[in-house]
Amino acid sequence: MTCRVRSLMVLALILVLTHGCAKTPETQRHAFFAVGTLVEITVFDPPENISEALRATEVALLAEEQRWRAWGNGELAEVNRRLSAGDTVELDAALLAGINRARDIAARSRGHFNPAIGRVVEAWGFNSEERPVGPPPTDQTLVTLLPPPSLNALRRDDNGHWITDDSRLWIDMGAFAKGLAVETAIETLQANGVRNAIVNAGGDLKTIGRHGERAWRIGVRHPRGNGVLAALEALDNESVFTSGDYERFFEWKGERFHHVIDPATARPARGVTSVTIVHADAALADAAATALFVAGANDWQATARALGIDKAMLVLDDGRVMLTPDMQSRITFEDMKMNVEVIAP
Ligand code: ADP
Ligand code: MG
Question: What letter would DSSP give residue 105?
Fold first, then answer.
């Protein structure tokens, strides 16, 4: 199934949960493809210039997509090619700001979030738009990529240009750029007078304001099957981001290999099927979902503390759900008999 088809299914889930507002005159919707998925913007009580606001937001998101594409014809791809050839590069303000934020989060993530592992992602074939079919890379290949560089391998030379001494550095913001893009979309809407909206990028989203009398209501997808795991109330200025082993994966000899990589092993992280984070900062929520996925059942609490995350939920591959008390107070499970453990971070 293609990414787009899967995104449409996630969208359908969100629509189910917001059906009460689907056709009311106070709600306006706009959907388009950007940042590798279907983006749907829902605005409640839209201002008069709403068409302009939506157009500006779409343009801003397409620019983010172009900026952060790490392979092919993206801005970051060009930076990566030059760095790995030993050349110096200039980083414009937007690239530098995003990379600095990613570096800061990576430094606090107990090694679980590392946007410098593009070469590992490529070895597994997750750099292409198409889903890889295997085989998985050999041990010999992975050994040459361990330990992977961090973003600290990027440095300024004596002339103030950016350069790296590690030819294996390949910056991949795949776990973070959607969060940056969603932040940009919300800022663009707000700059155009929108006060109540959801920006939903394939199930990862941020809300501002309310849906009239009530908070925005969100469906969190079940990591297995196409149903809803839980419903969540999102308040003003909240992001909900999920990392799952179902997003991008291939099967080889009966084993599932997915796209969330443990930087310590250069292999897909084991034990978790999905992580959902709620936080004001969409970029942090995106990175933290990936970091806690890699951290797994034993290290997610320490990682959440280090990243300042108080609303987190993990679904483990044995079906157990672990979540923080602050997440529990927000969430209603579809299946009341779920094996749920509430654990303070
Ligand atoms: P989603 O695609 O569901 O948003 P993530 O936010 O977890 O999933 O991002 C996964 C992508 O991030 C991968 O495709 C890869 O490009 C990159 N990535 C994988 N593992 C890591 C990691 N440990 N740290 C940083 N980036 C990663
Ligand atoms: Mg992420």
Answer: H
